[in-house]
Amino acid sequence: MNLDFRSKFDLLALRSLSEHGGRMEDGFLDFSTSINPYQPDWKREVFLKAERNSTRYTYFEDLDRELGELVGEDVAITAGATEGIYLSLIFLKNLDMERIIIPNPTYSEYERVSRIFGCRVVKAKVNPQDLAEKVRKNSAVFFCNPNNPDGKYFSPKELRSLIKAVEDSNSILIIDEAFKDFVKGFESPDGDNIIKIRTFTKSYGMPGIRVGYITGFSSEFQALRMPWSIGSVGYAFIEKIIEDGFDFLRNTMPKIWKEKERIEKALGVKSDANYFLMKFDVDLLKSKKILVRDCRSFGLNSLIRFSVRKPEENTRLIEAIKSLSAE
Predict the structure, then answer these.
(1) Nearest 10 degrees: CA dihedral of 259, 270, 154, 138?
(2) 168 is in which domain, residue-wise?
(3) Which one of 84, 96, 136, 189 has the fewest CB atoms closer than 10 angstroms to its CB?
(4) From CA 198, how far away is CA 195, in angstroms rounded?
(5) Residue 214 forms beta bridges with which residues?
(6) How far is the C-alpha of 259 from the C-alpha of 124, rounded, in Å?
(7) 254 and 228: one domain?
(8) DSSP assignment of 36-65, as one string?
(9) Given 245, 274, 303, which residue is the final one in a domain?
(10) Which residues pair with 41 in a beta bridge?
(11) Cα angle for residues 214, 272, 323 (degrees, 5° grid)
């Protein structure tokens, strides 16, 4: 029997991941990934310990407990936010929830992974009220907070209508809080029907180390996740985060917030997160050896997204945009 396996998959689900930015190009200043431009001074210790532990399997159940004590919630450690998204779809499929509501524009992996799992995708505006109106019995909602790519943050009060709609309909709200550490005064909402996906590797400037965690239904996610998924590097990284107690974040986030305000004043842009959305030609900046995120994959033609980096790097970006705009 000759089966056309490829035809069973939506083309969106087969799309290359290269559009997400962060591809290494020598000689370029990279603003395409929204990560902390600083890294912890204990980074080398992570890799040294990972090398020593690389001959052993990484059973990390004890780290679930220790990390949970640090963040004040029960957690299931994951290989970054991306594994959290996949695990969420497995969880939803086990509950027979196949109607997935996704804001537009937002991070494209929610739709891509939903289609991989054969779910029905319903689009809505990036607005809690509009999303709430789309909720039906046994639905699930993906919500990125702050949103990617525009950096808009919604407070628990602003999310109240959506949370109520989810609870009243026996549905699930999946909040991706991957960029929460970059939002000054961030507050996370509470609710029995809420899953929260979080990651450390953006806020610690090391996205190549795939480490994050899920709160909400943590014991179910601990059972669903792939064994040993974070590897020896991820294990050592989580250990250092627990030891550090988030001091690194307390020391570096004020630097990023200060630079964010400077960029806002210089370029007339606004965001609650560590990245900005604006209309500009991506190729013009590439001619200046500056990489930014082309937002066509979000359906936003002629728009770019760029992150906050170190002061001297931000100055170079500001000057390039101003000079190119004047030509």
Answers:
(1) -110
(2) 53-245
(3) 96
(4) 10
(5) 76, 197
(6) 33
(7) no
(8) -S---TTHHHHHHHHHHHTTS----HHHHH
(9) 245
(10) none
(11) 130
User: What are 225-277's pLDDT values in tens digits?
Assistant: 999 999 999 999 999 999 999 999 999 999 999 999 999 999 999 999 999 99
Between CA 168 and CA 176, with CA 173 as vertex, the angle to 5 degrees is 160
Q: Is 124 domain-assigned? A: yes
Report how many domains make up the chain.
Answer: 2
pLDDT digits (tens, 9 = 90+) for 57-108: 999 999 999 999 999 999 999 999 999 999 999 999 999 999 999 999 999 9
Q: Average pLDDT in the 144-156 region?
A: 98
Name the residue among 181, 222, 186 with its Cα closest to residue 91: 222
Half-sphere exposure at residue 242, Cβ-oriented, CA atoms within 13 angstroms:
19
Same domain, 176 and 266: no
pTM: 0.93
Checking if the pLDDT of 23 tops 70, the result is no
